[in-house]
Structure to design on (372 residues):
């Protein structure tokens, strides 16, 4: 988006980028930028800092845009205008007034000008502030785009998977398929940082409004990372289950959510914030098949490794393991309302094992089912 939300640029896997105006703008023709050999993954608009003409909300006209493609090419496009202020002055005030009235009418009947319901027509000849009534979309009328510069991000056997740009701080973040990311300062494309943060591709990047924190999303490794680039420290590190999530349970007070995954890990989440604040290797590599709470501080898990385990949420450690006389794979789990008796079902044989939570003793084996 442009800074005044009147212009939109979008990229496509057809290796092009297109520039549209949000509302119908008189004499504007959508532009297609073609200059890449691979799909474009990031496009960004930037104001012309040297432009003396100010449009609405103290925004300057768009001066350039950047496009980033999968093959690591950064293209810089410059907006060139032919209807400068000198030509407007030579045309006379009456013609400028007529043009302003015409543009206002087009915006009104097409829903432009921010959806204003009043048709604002100039009652006299325009003064020096008339340009401030225009949007950034009007500044693109009659303009042409020129490919002014290319830069190549040279990363061996890596493709660009994400890009994010802060126009205020001139910072560009590039995520690569190898788990690397690069931080660059534009327009010189000087490298500030290059760091490996994951074993999977960095699919999403974002820069916060102050330009201090950078967020990364890595779907293949289920990671969410927030990094402060000046101090080179992590502000936040979140990671989901490496495999699929198999089971979950709320604590009795509803504050905590416990989840078990195919990676054999038990994760403890805050139900209010959505953040994971503890990860426990509950069952090594065997999948966790069931999870339940005995009370607010004790959570139980069962697994295909043939064990049921009790975990202390105060010390975040496993304090008791329950096993069967003969090898079996647990697939279900329940605890009585008092939190003293555990019932766990197995796949083969089709038995239900009853344990005492406190002592860990096997109290009984119940049979009779013909299936798991």
């Amino acid at each position: 988006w442009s800074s005044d939300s009147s212009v939109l640029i979008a990229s496509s896997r057809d290796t092009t980028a297109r520039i549209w105006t949000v509302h119908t703008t008189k004499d504007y023709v959508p532009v297609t930028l073609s200059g890449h050999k691979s799909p474009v993954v990031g496009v960004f608009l930037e104001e012309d800092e040297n432009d003396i003409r100010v449009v609405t909300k103290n925004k300057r006209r768009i001066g350039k845009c950047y496009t980033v493609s999968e093959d690591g090419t950064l293209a810089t496009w410059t907006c060139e205008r032919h209807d400068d202020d000198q030509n407007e002055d030579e045309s006379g005030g009456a013609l400028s007034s007529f043009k302003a009235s015409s543009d206002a009418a087009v915006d009104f009947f097409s829903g432009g000008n921010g959806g204003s319901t009043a048709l604002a027509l100039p009652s006299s000849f325009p003064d020096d502030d008339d340009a401030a009534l225009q949007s950034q979309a009007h500044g693109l009328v009659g303009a042409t785009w020129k490919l002014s510069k290319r830069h190549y991000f040279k990363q061996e056997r890596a493709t660009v998977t994400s890009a994010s740009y802060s126009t205020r701080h001139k910072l560009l973040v590039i995520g690569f398929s190898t788990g690397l990311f690069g931080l660059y300062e534009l327009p010189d494309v000087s490298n500030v940082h290059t760091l490996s943060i994951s074993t999977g591709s960095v699919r999403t990047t974002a820069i916060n409004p102050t330009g201090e924190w950078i967020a990364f999303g890595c779907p293949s490794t289920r990671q969410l990372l927030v990094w402060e680039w000046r101090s080179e420290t992590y502000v936040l590190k979140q990671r989901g289950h490496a495999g699929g999530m198999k089971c979950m349970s709320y604590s009795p007070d509803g504050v905590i959510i416990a989840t078990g995954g195919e990676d054999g890990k038990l994760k403890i989440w805050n139900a209010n914030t959505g953040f994971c604040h503890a990860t426990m290797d509950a069952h090594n590599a065997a999948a966790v098949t069931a999870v339940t709470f005995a009370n607010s501080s004790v959570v139980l898990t069962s697994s295909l490794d043939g064990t049921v385990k009790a975990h202390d949420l105060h010390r975040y450690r496993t304090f008791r393991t329950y096993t069967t006389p003969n090898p079996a794979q647990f697939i279900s789990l329940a605890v009585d309302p008092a939190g003293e008796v555990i019932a766990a079902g197995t796949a083969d044989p089709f038995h239900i094992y009853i344990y005492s939570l406190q002592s860990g003793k096997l109290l009984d084996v119940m049979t009779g089912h013909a299936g798991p």
